[in-house]
Amino acid sequence: MLPKSLTISFEFFPPKTDEGKIKLYETAMQLADSQPDFFSVTFGAGGTTREGTLEAVKMLQDKTDITVAPHLSCVGTSQDQLIETLHEYKKMGVKRIVALRGDIPTGMTYDGGELKYASDLVRLIRKITGDYFHIEVAAYPEIHPQAKSVHDDVMNLRRKQDAGANSAITQYFYSSDAYFYYLDDCARNGVNIPIIPGVMIVNQYDKLLRFSEMCGADVPLWMRKRFEACGNDQDSIQSFGLEVVHRLCQRLIDGGAPGLHFYTLNRAEESLSLLKLLGLGTYSRQLRPVAVSTT
Question: 205-227 pLDDT, tens per residue?
Answer without folding.
Answer: 999 999 898 888 999 999 999 99
